[in-house]
Amino acid sequence: xxxxxxxxxxxxxxxxxxxxxxxxxxxxxxxxxxxxxxxxxxxxxxxxxxxxxxxxxxxxxxxxxxxxxxxxxxxxxxxxxxxxxxxxxxxxxxxxxxxxxxxxxxxxxxxxxxxxxxxxxxxxxxxxxxxxxxxxxxxxxxxxxxxxxxxxxxxxxxxxxxxxxxxxxxxxxxxxxxxxxxxxxxxxxxxxxxxxxxxxxxxxxxxxxxxxxxxxxxxxxxxxxxxxxxxxxxxxxxxxxx
Length: 242
Hints:
- This protein is of the alpha+beta class.
- It has a single domain, classed as Deoxyribonuclease I, Chain A, CATH 3.60.10.
- It is 16% helix and 33% strand.
- It has 3 helices and 16 strands.
- A 6-stranded mixed beta sheet has the order 3-6-7-8-12-9, with helices on one face. A two-stranded antiparallel ribbon has the order 1-2.
- Strand 10 and strand 11 form a beta hairpin.
- Helix 1 runs parallel beside helix 2.
- It is globular.
């Protein structure tokens, strides 16, 4: 297995999602050491009925020697319509706020990363009104969340398509203390983020030209990768050993 040399480990809990979809964290044990992990129930109710959706995976650990908190999300889908289902995603966004408050009660200066498939775009209410994400580093105040994918979405970039419409559901958010305007890299700082969308992962012809080359359509194998492009973020830190 070509991945064996990277010493990957996984953190995963079974969740109540009816389709059996869970959140998980894949990490390299050479650079990240988890010290706690917990699956936080989204506690979703709609018209007094429990909505069985994915848990929020909360992992705390040391990225090299620096403590970070990671929240892995997979918010409720847009099944039934984006507008009708938006309340569910907004409620999970509020659940993230609850976890953020718990983290900051223990450590007001905690570094936090929130990532996942949110089934919402960076400009939707769940981000701009609930999480109050900021698209520019200069807008950030203490406690804010920076979303580098908002500018990408406004510029027309996407991680998936549906009925010829572009969406950017896959995002990574960073707490304000990952951001520096003074080129201070004495601790881990956000460097850049992006969407990994090479030609070989993109359909080059046909009705869905320009869309991610998916692996399956129902039970039919299509030979691709995923119906979403992956996203990434770089964190950099000054090497003081030299």
